[in-house]
Amino acid sequence: MKTIQLCEKLVKEVYNKFDASHDFLHIERVRKNALYIASSEVDADNEIIELAVLLHDVSDPKYVTTEGKYMEDHIIQQLNISKETTEHVKNIIQAVSFNGGHEITADTIEAKIVRDADRLDAIGAVGIARTFAYGGAKGRKLYDVTETPRDNMSAEDYRSKQTASVTHFYEKLLKLADGMQTRTGKELAKERHAFMELFLENLRQETGESI
Q: Taking every annotated instance into account, which residue ranges of this chain make up the domain HD/PDEase (predicted)?
C-alpha cells in the first residue's frame, strides 16, 4: 500500500471518533485546499503536504487524552518514511495550530500551504457550520451578550474557557484572513471573511442583540 493511502486508512480510524467539526470530511476539504494552493506555488512537495494534512489533527488536544497526545508518532512509525520527511511533517503540524494567537512560525512553503488550507476551512460558510457543530457537541451557547471577546490570552486560556460559539468568531475566526501566508490563501480568504461578517450582521439584525 502506498504511503498516502496507508496514512489515510490509519487516520480515518482516529477522525471517525471526532465530532463533525473535525471529522475526515474536514481533512478532505483541507487537502483539497492545500493541493489547490500548492498548484500555484513553486517547488512545494505534495507528498509532504498530504501527509501533514492527514496527520495534523490526530493529536488535537480538544479530543485526545494524554495517551493519544502523540498519535501522529504512532501512525508515522507505520508509514516507513525517512527521518527527514518525518521531521518536516511534524514541524508543519506544530505550525498549523492557532494556539490562541501564539502560533509558531511557518518557515517552509509546505507549512505555509497547510496552515492556510486548514484556516480556510475554519472561515466562510464551512467555518460557520463547523463552529456551531463544535459548539453543539460541547454544549456551548450560540451567543452570549455578556461575554467580552479576549484579545490577549494564553494558549491554555484559549483552550480551557467555554465561550459561546459567536464569541469564537471574534477571538479567532475574524483574525485568520490577515494571517494567511500564501498569495492564493489570501485571495481565497477575502470572500470567506466577508461572508462571516455578513452572517454576523444578519445575526445581529435577527436577534436584536449587539453580538
A: 19-132
Count of other CB atoms within 10 angstroms of residue 102: 12
**Domains parsed from the chain with CATH numbers:** 3-207 (1.10.3210.50)
pLDDT tens, per residue, the chain with 211 residues: 799 999 999 999 999 999 999 999 999 999 999 999 999 988 999 999 999 999 999 999 888 875 556 899 999 999 999 999 999 999 999 999 887 667 899 999 999 999 999 999 999 999 999 999 999 999 999 999 999 998 887 767 777 778 999 999 999 999 999 999 999 999 999 999 999 999 999 999 999 999 8
Q: What are the b/e assignments for 45-77, b being 16+ CB within 10 Å?
A: beebbbbbbbbbbbbeeebbeeebeebbeebbe
How deeply is 145 buried, as exposed, middle or buried, from its count of CB atoms within 10 A (0-12, 13-18, 19+)? Answer: exposed
- Torsion of the alpha carbons at 176, 177, 181 and 187, rounded to the nearest 10: 150
Backbone angles phi, psi at 27, to 5 degrees: -60, -40
DSSP one-letter code for 175: G
Report pTM: 0.94
How many residues does this entry show for the chain?
211
Nearest to 126 by CA among 174, 188, 196, 181: 196
Find, among 106, 111, 93, the residue nearest to 38 by Cα: 111
- Helix 109-120 to helix 183-207 angle (10° resolution) is 20
